[in-house]
Amino acid sequence: MKKITRVVAVLLTFVLALIVAGCGDYVAKVNGKTISKKDFDRRFAQVQADMKLRGVDLTSTEGQKMLQSLKQQTLDQMINEILISEYGKEKKIEPTKDEITNKINEIRAQFPSPQDFEKALKDRNITDKDLQEMVRVQLINDKIYNEVTKGITVSEQEVKEYYEKHKNEPDFQTPEQRQVRHILIAVNDGNAQNNPHFNINVKRTDAEAKKLAEELIKQIKAGKDFATLAKEKSDDPGVKENGGQYTFSRGEMVKEFEDAAFALKKPGDITETPVKTAFGYHIIKLEKIIPARQKTYEEVKEQLKNYLLEKKKREAYNKFLEDLKKKAKIETKLSFK
């Protein structure tokens, strides 16, 4: 679960683009309770502000596609909020003031400071009243969710059957990996302070860094221990103490480093020339080739059990919401373009 709870995420993750045509004072009615055009537009302004803060260009083709795809989802969300509130009232499920306050305090605690929390709300046009209501509805939702899903379980047989059916899929494969040692000779070009991988105390030009890396390659070829040199000379503080060791698969490192490492054919091989990346110059030694393999049932069974349990719960709760909708009288007056 992300650090910012679902209470705020309801508004922070749902985004829409709405063009309301000829819909009067309200856009929908749920059992006689209206969703006013004013409230709908206000919700839109909040989520639109959030997307802009996230750097999404809503005028771009991709931005427009995103907005279009979430229109109905957003309306459904507002309808669900009414249905949940009504069901909670009927079943006398209502959070206390203390529960609401405690939940808001939990949300506030996820931010670096109270000022950051207030700024996040202000930037998204979320008032204290909005937050109180969102928390109230979410707490009702949580209580109902727990009640609806409390008897759901997953058997070991179900987990095994799922594993057998899906074990050849990428999620159950560990890709081929390389275990290497490396020595980084950083270049202090004025940007080092912005990158934690650089030793910012070095005073070294690109040419000086390359020359030093070439000299170290000569020492290694002459018999100098690679791990010892890494501890003495490497400017990568993250792995300096363990002899500059990394274990990784394709897609985890910068391309130049990765390509050079995977080009080495057998353990003990080193790069013949320094490998230039944005971090500086690297000398890479291949330690081990770790073949691709399939994850065993024992490795993934707990993860699978949790996944299947959550899936069952989501399905049960979604059915519960659909049943509420079927019993409700819902009228919509939205026209999307």
Automatic annotation (TrEMBL):
**Gene3D superfamilies per record:** 3.10.50.40, Porin chaperone SurA, peptide-binding domain
Q: Give the enzyme's EC designation.
A: 5.2.1.8
**What are the boundaries of the signal sequence?**
none
Describe the location of the PpiC domain by residue ranges: 175-288
Kindly indicate whether the keyword Isomerase belongs to this entry: yes
A Gene Ontology molecular function term for this protein is: peptidyl-prolyl cis-trans isomerase activity
Q: Recite the UniProt keywords alphabetically.
A: Isomerase, Rotamase, Signal
PANTHER family reported for this sequence: FOLDASE PROTEIN PRSA, PEPTIDYLPROLYL ISOMERASE
Task: Specify the protein name.
Answer: peptidylprolyl isomerase
Per the UniProt record, the source organism is Carboxydothermus hydrogenoformans (strain ATCC BAA-161 / DSM 6008 / Z-2901)
Lineage start: Bacteria, Bacillati, Bacillota, Clostridia, Thermoanaerobacterales
